[in-house]
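Hey, can you fold this one?
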Amino acid sequence: MNEIRPLTMARNAVDATALALLPEAAIVIETIDDRIVHSNPKARHLLAGSATDGGRFSEYVESDLAEFIVFLDELAYRGEAWTRKVAIERQNGDTVGVEIRGRRLAPDSSLVLLLFLNLEELRRHERAMEAEQLQREGLMGWRRAQEFFSELEFQNQLILNAAGEGIYGVNTKGQATFVNRAAQEMLGWDTDDLLGKSIHDIIHHHHSDGSAYHAHDCPIYRSFRFEQVARVEDELFWRKDGKPIQVEYVSTPIYNQKVLAGAVVIFRDVTERKLSERKLHDALIEVAELRDRLEQENAYLQEAITNERAHHDVIGRSPAIRQLLAKIELVAPTDAPVFITGETGAGKAIVASAIHKDSSRKRRPLIQFRCGSISRRSIEAELFGQLGGADGTAGDNSGALELAHGGTLFLEDVCELPLDLQGDLLRALQDRKFKRIGDTHSRNLNLRVIASSAKDIEQEVAVGHFREDLLLFLGVFPIHCTPLRDRREDIPDLAAHILAIACERLNRKPPIITERTMNALMNYHWPGNVRELRNVIERAAIVSTGSKLIVEIGGERSNGDTGRTVRTEREMQQEIRANLVAALRETNGRVAGKEGAATLLGMKPTTVYSRMEKFRIEQHEWNA
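Sure. Predicted structure:
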């Protein structure tokens, strides 16, 4: 912008005489109410004599009013601005292209000084100056620059060609003046392709996204236009074969006897380095994903550790148990799918754990997935995982399949799996690949699968509740868990084992299991199998404050004594608490609902919650 003498202002008043002395058309406007405060004669001439002080300026820029408002916003923010996007519309119908230069007259003032330069006049002046400059310089300027670069190339040819970096020079018109050997090898262009031609149009014409890269935006051109060094770490140069290479370069202006002659560009091919950086970045992302998965595995294992570890051992000496152990020993070293059947509480999870602990995957986790414990949508998310953002989730969640990668997946109550998800599961197990919900990326799968069911699986297939092809995949090696009533000889060992664990947790000496008590345990039919036995023994361990174990099964109490039949209030409360813990253990901590502890106890859920609070029952007690 032409230098303007400071205008004397007092409360936003402008000296109209000073304005009239300006060589350009000038107008002072009040931006708040769109009012022309002052205009000089040249401005009135520009507007075809129609400008009057006090009139509205927006009438002259109606077609480009939006651009003019953008210009005023920039002016208000920066204090000064210019634009060529707004044309002046005279009242006689003519349109004049102008360059508007504006300056705010004071920091807090709404008065703005606008200078108008007629673009047509500017172009005439530029053409006149170019003609004059060409006439003055003639061929001397070109020869001087050519001689300078020729001398430079001659003196430094050996050094330039020995350099490992690509080097080329350009004159002030952007034409290549020399190119070293390394640059030719990197770009595939030879000197005949480049010398004397606009090198930007040959090697620097487009961005990586395919959009045009205009020369006026190029840092190399700015080097000799504004005489500044440009350092760029990540751009593209285009090879002769049409392929891009990633480069970093430094563009430095050069001078001939203090006269700007052009620029020299030194660049290197960093394509391999950038590729390595991307691979490293991807590897770090993969490491982060693995870390997240390990953290989730750890959380799962921490929860699993809260269950009593000894309960994972197969206890007993009956023929059924010996046959079961033989099957476990036979199948454990393989990766064959195992299908475990048996009544509820018969120890299917214990068998699955024993198979995993004797397998080659024992160093990886055994992931237990209860197929019927949650809703259909939740089952899909918990099984396959979910990508962050799907269904409003905040972060990525690994599913049971991903957590079991490298280890073993135990599908408990697999018959409860929704029919449509059975097909997805079969496909994932067969293809050894799966996708999280909301993800398009397939993940590899390497696991051993063990399934269990308390229902008649053949009947489930017959009525169409379970896919036959999935059963064929899972049922390679079937194992049946014999109910406890059919192997009563194991009850003494099981009872002693469970009692020892319960008393260790309660930090008390194990009471004696009398013959009468053991007979009561042996004669009971145990519809809940080992799980029911565990609940009875653990409840008895809590209420037995004396030297003998007091058990209650089937509504009858046995303690090995015939004298004492009345229980104290404290013993009653202990039994109520133990019974509540047993119900919570039976329902995996669920209180409400059809399969909740409240239904099992015949109480309202609010009553159960109240008693849990009263007895201070904590989660680790029903997880134990």
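The chain has a mean pLDDT of 81. Let me know if you want another pass with a different chain boundary.
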